[in-house]
Amino acid sequence: MANKEVDQISGIETTGHEWDGIKELNNPLPRWWLYTFYACCLWALGYAIAYPAIPLIKGNTAGFLGYSSRADVADELTKAKVAQAGLLSKIESSSLEEIRKDPTLLQFAVSGGRSAFLVNCVQCHGAGASGSPGYPNLNDDDWIWGGKLEDIYTTLKHGIRFQWDDDTRTSQMPAFGADELLKKGQINDVAEFVRQLAGLEHNAEAATWGAKAYAEHCAACHKDTGEGDREQGAPSLKDAIWFYGSSKEEIAQQIARPRHGVMPGWINRLDDNTLKKLTVYVHSLGGGE
Amino acid sequence: MVTVYNSVERVDAEAVNSKEKRVDYAARVKIFPKRVAGSFRSLKWWIMLITLGIYYVTPWIRWDRGPHAPDQAVLVDLANGRFYFFFIEIWPQELFYIAGLLIMAGVGLFLVTSTVGRAWCGYTCPQTVWVDLFLVVERWVEGDRNARIKLDKGPYTFDKWRKRLLKHAIWIVIAVATGGAWIFYFADAPTLLWSFITVDAPLVAYSTVAILTATTYVFAAFMREQVCTYMCPWPRIQGAMLDEDSLVVTYNDWRGEGRGSQKQRRAEGEEKFGDCIDCNLCVAVCPQGIDIRDGQQLECITCALCIDACDGVMEKIGKPKGLISYATLRTYNANTAGVDSPTTWRSFIRPRTYIYIGVWALIGLVMLGFLLTRDRLDVNVLHDRNPVYVRLSDGSIRNGYTIKILNMKAEPRAITLSLSGINGATMSVVGQDAAAGNAIEVALKPDKLVALKVYVSASPANLSGERSDMEFKVSDKTDGEQSTYSANFNGPAREEK
Questions:
Q1: What is the ipTM of this complex?
Q2: Which residue of A12, A113, A145, B276 shows the fewest CB atoms closer than 10 Å?
Q3: Chain B residues with CB inside 8 Å of A239's CB?
Q4: In chain B, which segments carry CATH 2.60.40.10?
């Protein structure tokens, strides 16, 4: 600092910095401020020794206190498991109906079931469980294999048309078109009749013809009035919910070449507690019986 | 060979910034404020009494709210998310009242600063009040300024040890009481005091007391004016808010200079001098350790003790008071120019203060309006997002809602939740077996929120396309209070035939 400038009014040396005519005086810093800075340095040093701090080629220094955020997480998970232990054992020993009746267990099962659902089921049924063509909507009150707690539990355990499980639910609608059981015109007539059963717009004359073929080929499973049969996994044809669409073309296509979805059985993949929670969760979505 | 030196006398001169004297870091110079009496000192005693009284007594005031709510008049119940202030109870979503109060406090400070300068700093700031309190103890134990300076400079005798220990002991007791009082705002005071004494209180209570004890002790016993000068941002902001009509503690040098001691006056004649007799009393009483005669300074908290000191001296020597006084820059400049212009309350009358008062009052009135008309029964509705609607097997459309009903009264209530806007729409509550209808009875616990999962079903014929308007209403038949929520009901864009 060759040019020392002294402020005329205060008699204090300036730093030489100037902003719009305002000059900074070079007043000394309070000493305690310096000590505070030293104290912070010491603290940082102590911190670096006590806690993981210094990166090495592989990993980092562990610190004397042996702290690790990973261990913290593990600790919290263990604590959560211990905290849940009581509820989990209750879920294990309670029947599905008992779980549903107990508000605490119900809440626990529904939130646990939702987590399991988001990991295992969303791929087909969607995050809101509302499905898509070919994948049923679990929010509604239409159930192919039954909507009672026990029904849902069984479906979850053994799946549908799941070839690796002998107890799986199975139904097989004949391919009336592909196997030439019905002629194209007959299929068209049956489709008109099915729309009549459901109360949709239809060609009355064709439906009359279709009724005959229906009674012969379809009524065994779907029943005379089209209400279906859960024992056989035959869906209702008279309600407003359509698995593969309700237009005449879509119905006719399903009669000619039926599609058959597959749901895996979860008995070997999820523990019984999780299956129970999933059951209660699906049942709670609004359509449970 | 003999060297002959010509005689040169050493001149007693030193460079102001000589290498030896220049410091990068300055040690705190101890300040020993002298006791002073006067009207401002009396005012400050009263303010200290009132502010400390409010701080210590408030948590112990009881306020009966019935069996379902705490009976502490002022309570910040963090665990349950409630704030109680006498007859007002605030829920977390009503925190804007606190925000409003803080804004009012801010505008209030602007108003105060623009009119009476740094009155907050000089009279009511906790730092000022507690330093004042600590100084009372210091004077009581060690004596006034001269005795304290002597004691401080003297060797550590038994007497010095005794006084120092006593002083610090009392300070620490005050500090503990200060930190201790704080926690009673956050829990039932008598219960907490008992559990605190029996070492049964939560750890956070002890750590809060410990931290506040430490800050009180360090700030009021050791840091003192350093807090104002170096740590607090407020003096810097206030410096920017003062204008030439704001009151500041002013040494009226147009009247006081040239200053001369009584000895000089006797020797050289009275006429030569102004009113300042250079007794230095204004410097001796200053808790900030400054000389107000150097002009307005950043360090000055306008505590006005120098005014009291100087007025006392003026009285003694038979001169008019007010050599040091509250004055505005405008009157000071006028007086300096030779125009006699006293500082009066007229300096408060200017657009700036009107605007501050207007803004302050407006916020206050709006908040008061909200407070007087606010609901104590409220309903919030969350529409299910996924799926937005579900078709049921009979063709009807179902929407799901999470309905939160807030009973903000400290008593149980029986209310009716009803729905309107869509013909024939029915609702059912998950977990309740009651038949679906368009109204259901709900029992509310006192001062609690209840969340219901509600399904509403309607025939597509009664819907208006993708979005129909409907309304949920909660009503209390007993006191007639009701609250509504406008919600949407989603359905398919068109119906298949």
A1: 0.80
A2: A12
A3: 393-395
A4: 377-490
